[in-house]
Structures are given as structure tokens and as C-alpha cells.
Amino acid sequence: MINGMQNGVSALDLIIGGDLALYAIISLSLIVSVSATLLAAAIGLPLGALLALVRFPGRAVMVVVLNAFMGLPPVVVGLAMYLLLSRSGPLGFLGLLFTPQAMILAQAVLVMPIIAALTRQTVEDLWVEYRDEMTAMRVGPAGRVAALLWDARFSLMTTLLAGFGRAAAEVGTVMIVGGNIDGFTRTMTTAIALETSKGDLPLAIGLGIVLIALIIAVNAAAGAARRLGELHAG
Amino acid sequence: MRAPRSELPIRIEDVSLRSGSVTILESVSVVLAPGAPTVLIGPNGSGKSSLLRLATGLVSPTLGRVTWGGRVTTGGDRCAIVFQRPVMLRRSVAANVAFALRHEAKGRRHRADRIAELLDLVGLAALGARPARRLSGGEQQRLALARALARDPEILFLDEPTANLDPAATKAVEDIIVQVAAAGVKIVLATHDLGEARRLAGEVVFMLRGRVSESAPAPSFFAGPATQEAQAFLNGDLMI
User: Fold this and answer.
1) Which residue of A has its CA nearest to B81?
2) What pTM was estimated for this model as a whole?
3) Model confidence over B83-109: pLDDT tens digits?
4) Residues of A in contact with B86 (CB under 8 A)
């Protein structure tokens, strides 16, 4: 008990004291998770909207697969990305393995199905409400996708937060494709795993506190932005 | 630039509409010609809304055919419709009109002028920045009218546009309809409100149980309808 409290105090010292290594890890984690979420959103939002609006053979199977991929095991994604990006793999020529870019790509693969699947459901529900008006206004498929994504923006913010949460909390994928290289590809989650195994609990606890605080802060900011937006847009 | 071809008259020829085993319209024939407003009246479930959807090209007939200006097309390119419960997009009043205009391939400057003009026409000029979903029911109906008019329609279909409105809001909507009709837009309006039909109709189509029971100029219809069903409806009898 006393040991635990001492670790907690040491962890706070690291945070408040502005430990440079700690802040480098925090900033890399944020860059990787935010970039991965944005990349996944760029693909997942229109893909989800198209799946909601367009009927084609095999759509039902695609929806089932997409929903199932929300639970993709991170280590499997990490392994697949490792094979793709390794020197002998099809994307080996890019030289991305063990770089932050590889971590962003891998996390985007993990997050994209979550964003696409939740977007599909949100847009499909909204389409039921909008169908008659949009059809009467002769809005084309691209216009429908854009309008529905925009009008569902407040609900989709929660979808993006779910994606960000998945990316920020993820450890297996980034460990495999990033390599947990000190000062280069070490993120909060991989550092927590490493420091715990080394027995350096103050740093692990400090990182854990920061990780949770960051996720709460991002969610709070998004919630405030949503309330403000709803106030103005109705 | 070549003037767009007229879609009038709209001929609905011996049309039936079915949904599964349910017959919604049965052997309906109506001609919607240029001129004074055509008002579809009849009790709930008589097929008025379905007939409007057919005429705008939103649904296709199971049997029979619909022609617009003598052409069988996918239909209704110069038609606009206002639904009984219009859906407001989650954006401002002005942005709702802008959305409708965006799909009319107009220039940006023309759009700004047109938005102002349309909001002025429906009496919402002062509310352009307000979220559309915060408007009252009557204001939402007027915004839906502005959005429909943004398409510069030749024919404007209105599906019970005042069904849930108080008298003041009803008058505001009806005044706009009269103004639009005077500007040469063909109005086709569905209602079960006889007062509204008397105020607006140039021609009446009386519908009952998915069929056109009677079609006549408004003065002669209200003076003495040809069918007993229409007379019973005018008398306010409950029609089941």
C-alpha cells in the first residue's frame, strides 16, 4: 500500500517536473493516434455513408464483414502490417517498418472499420428521415453522401471519439510495427508495457495517468464542441 | 439557352398503385393542366398523398402510365413538393435554402440574391441565421416552401401543408400559395380541409378509397357535387 503511494507520488513528480522523455512519449502518442484517426476517418466516413446509401450485390456481406472487423485483434493487424511493410513484403520498398508512419498506418487499419461501421448505421438511420426530401430535391449520390455526413456530424463526432479511443489505447499493433524504439517509436502504451515489465512503476503509472487524462480531455473538448455546435445548428 | 420544356399537362392514365397485396390507387385517371390550382380532397387514406407522389415521379405506378408534357420520362424534373411534415436539414434557415439551390447549378452570386429573395417571399428574411429545427411548425412549412421554390418549379405539389398549423400560420402559408399561383406556377394541393379547398381551388379532384370519385371546376363542385359520396363529404358526414 505504502509502496503504491510512493510510486504514485513519483509519477506525479515526473509529470509536474516536465520530464522530457515523458513528454516526448506523450507527444508521439498523440501525433500517432490523431493522425491514424484522421486517416481512418478520411476513408471510413465516405465508405460508411456509401454503404448506407448505395445498394449493390454483396452489400449485406460487406456490412457483416465490416461490423466483424470492429473487433479486429490488434496483434493480428500488427502482424499483417509487419508482413506488408517488412523488407521482403509488398510495401517493403517504402522503408516504413519501425517508423511512426508505420504505426499510423497500422492504427488506421484498426480504427477504419469502427468508423465505417458506425457511420453506416448513423447515416442509414438519418437517410430514413431524409429520403423523401432528398429524392424530391433530385440530390445526386455525391450530394447525398456529403449532406448526410454533414447533418450527422454531431453523432459522427462520437464515432470519431470511439476510433480515437481505440487508437490511443492500442498497444499490440504499434509494438509490432513500431518496435518500441526509445526516442523514436515509443508511445505511452508501449512504454507502460515496457516499464511495467522492467519494474519502473512510477513512469508506468505516470504514463497511465496522463493517457487517461488525455482521453478524458479529448472527450470533454469534443462534448463541449458538440453542445456548442448543436446550439448553433439545431 | 433553350427554355426548359414544359412538363404540363401531367397525365395520369388508368394508374393503379399497389404495395404488396394492398391496393393504394385503383384505375386513377387525372389530367393536371396549366391554370388555377388543382386541389385533391378526400378523407384520410383516400390516396391523395400517393397520387401526389406519382405525379412528382417519386413513385412509379404498378399499372397504367404517367406522362409529363406528353413524355414518358423518369418524371418530375420541373416539379417540387412540400410534404406534410417537411424535414429540416440540421443547419440554418438560409443554409436550407442554399442546399436546395446548390443542386440547381446556379452561380454563387445569383444564389445569395435568390436566397434573400425566397426568404423574403416566405416572410423569413429576419430568421436566416436561425437553426431551421428551432422554427415553429408554421415557419418550418414556409421554409419548406422556400426550399421547394428554389428549384424554380413549373408545378408545385403541396401535401396537406397546413394540416398541423393554427389559423394565423395557415393564412401565412395560404397567402404564399396564392402569390406563387399568381406568378404562374401550377399548384396541386392535397387537403382534407374543406375551407382551405374552397379558398384555394380552381379545380377539385375528390378521392375516396384509392379512386377518383369526382373531378370538377371548384364552383360547380361546391355548388352541387355530382356524386353522393362527395355530397356526404361536403356535409361533413363521417366517411369510413
Assistant:
1) A136
2) 0.84
3) 988 999 999 999 999 999 876 656 677
4) 133
